[in-house]
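Quick one - first record:
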Amino acid sequence: MHEEIEELKKAIEASPENVYLRMLLVRKMRPFDQYLQEAEQQLETVMELEKQNREARELLVEIFFRQGKNSAAIVLGEDLLEQTDVSPGTKLILSKAYYAEEDFTKSRDLYEEVLMINPSMTDQQLDHAFRLGSAYDEDDENDYLLEKPKVTFQDVGGLDDIKREIDLKIIKPLEHADLYAAYGKKVGGGILLYGPPGCGKTFLARATAGEINAGFINVTLNDILDMWVGNSEKQLNAIFEEARDNAPCVLFFDEIDALGAKRSDLRQSAGKNVINQFLSELDGVEASNDGVLVIGATNVPWHLDAAFRRPGRFDRVIFVPPPDLDNRAEILKIKLADKPKEHIDYHKLAKLTPHYSGADLEAVIDIAIESVLETAMQTGAPQPLTTDLLKNAISKHRSTTIDWFTTAKNYAVFANQSGQYDAISEYLKKHKDL
């Protein structure tokens, strides 16, 4: 086979505009990972010669995906979907690329399309993620979802303004439910936390439940989505019923954009049905949500369906920014509290980490720990972390929030007619370096 590949390369050198030869070469290279980059170059040349060569474009989607170039595979795949009838195999690859990029809604929708065309084209990873077994059993108990968090706002480093807002709008009404009832006001509702990844949205939601000794249900995508028609809606209803039965209860949906994506972006009616069910549960159409606080968290609020932000749903929207200077120092103190250390200048380290998220600071500490572990293992004694060690670790880690603000800035400038991104605009005004 490798000899044939070399012979075809020589033939192409003699006839560089021969598309047939180039495609034949790609087909020969396709099974071998070591030829993927060369295959990519050949396909790009074919597309220059024949821009609408469908086979070349579909093969290039596969080649991109196999090299881990998921974004490139998605861009080319989406263009194909808009312009032509795409093979189930390419749709499956595109579904897997979406999944790798954590765009679970589009991944699931495309996988459904593939199985409708050819039920035998299953994928183990996608099945594990989306095919959650047979039809939902209404007698199943879901108590395993419920927990009582021990963390409170004292355990949350910084975010004082946000904690104050949650206390005023959410916690106080739950603590004084009788007073609210006297005025005919329901206790509970929905809040949406949004901001860069790693800034404590999940921990903040858990601490909110801990503040009022309420139940806490952390809902993941796998708790909801099911390949079988109607099951996702049933499972969503079951989780809301669990929260209602255990009120006061905080129901937390992380990456809520995966469940509540804009319906105009969805290709399948199944995804739209889940969103409609979600909206119905938020409205308490068939059961009261009194005492149920629904918290959603997202890094991409611009992908959330506008219907979720109507009054009575996620009508309280809170921007969770990266921690400021004092809060970064506080977070470092909390995260280093139980670790061997000496002479840590927290303020100095905080000044060196502008725009770092809590997750970024934890990554810095991990890098510093790794730098002393080898010595510690040789001596058999823990080596203390120092300011210099942490400074060196900071030089090896870049803030992950900067890319987020690059995207968010565009929405704040060009898509902020309703004022929903005013908090981002205010933050950017105060931080001219972003």
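second record:
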Amino acid sequence: MAGPTKKEKANHIAVILDKLYPETPIPLQYQDPYTLLIAVLLSAQCTDVRVNKITPILFNHAPNVYKMSELPIAEIEEIIRPCGLSPAKSKAISRLSNLLIEHHNGQVPESFEALEALPGVGHKTASVVMSQAFGHPAFPIDTHIHRLAYRWGLSNGKNVTQTEKDLKKIFPIESWNKLHLQIIYFGREHCPARGHVFTACPICSIYGRKSLFK
């Protein structure tokens, strides 16, 4: 007997996630599209908890794009050092702030193309800003989502670009913005990278790849 299709699995997984996480508060604290953009940039290879401790300090020094553009790079770097990769991140924050003023009237642009043209802003960061700041459908793929999509047999796990394409095919577009947060929360609480007990997981116990159980 044939097993469920990817779409059938996706539908059932969405039901499970809706029961577990009917509300999906955004993990990063922010006040507007600009502060969200900076917070997401800082979150690369850093936990949301740590970013949320650092951003109030940073935004106390520079609460908007104009103040940030005036802040010396060395000062930005010193503040954000606990987030890791501070030399590169501080330069990106300073440069993108100046570019926003020069080319976008100090506003965060509402397009993937314009966002991804900014220093330090890749597709995932742009996707988070487009979905969470502007409400456009997007499916940001982080390590949790990439890992779980493979575990559940929804994607081949080759790379995050392929995972994003695969998930967009099987989940309805209106669910993407909420769903990516639900999967992140699920990964943290029920489906960790290490020490994971597949048979005890609410989703892996049903749809987990059998080869990973060994």
